[in-house]
Amino acid sequence: MQVKRSLVGYIFESEKMKILVLGGNGFIGRQIVAQLKTKGAEVLVGSRNADAQEKIMQLRLEEMQGVQDWLPRLADIDVVVNSVGILRERGFKNNRESYEAIHTIAPAILAEACAQLGIRLVHISAIGLSLSAKSQFIRSKYLGEQAILASGANATIVRPSLLDGEGGYGAKWFRRVSTWPVQFVMQSKGVVAPLQVSDLGEAVANLCEMDFDALPRAVELGGNDILTIPEYLKKLRANYKLMPALQLPVPKFVVRVFSHLFDVMAWTPLSFGHFELMQGYNAPAVNMLPTLLGRKPMEVGAEVEVGNALNDTVRVSTI
Question: Is the pTM of this model over 0.85?
Answer without folding.
Answer: yes
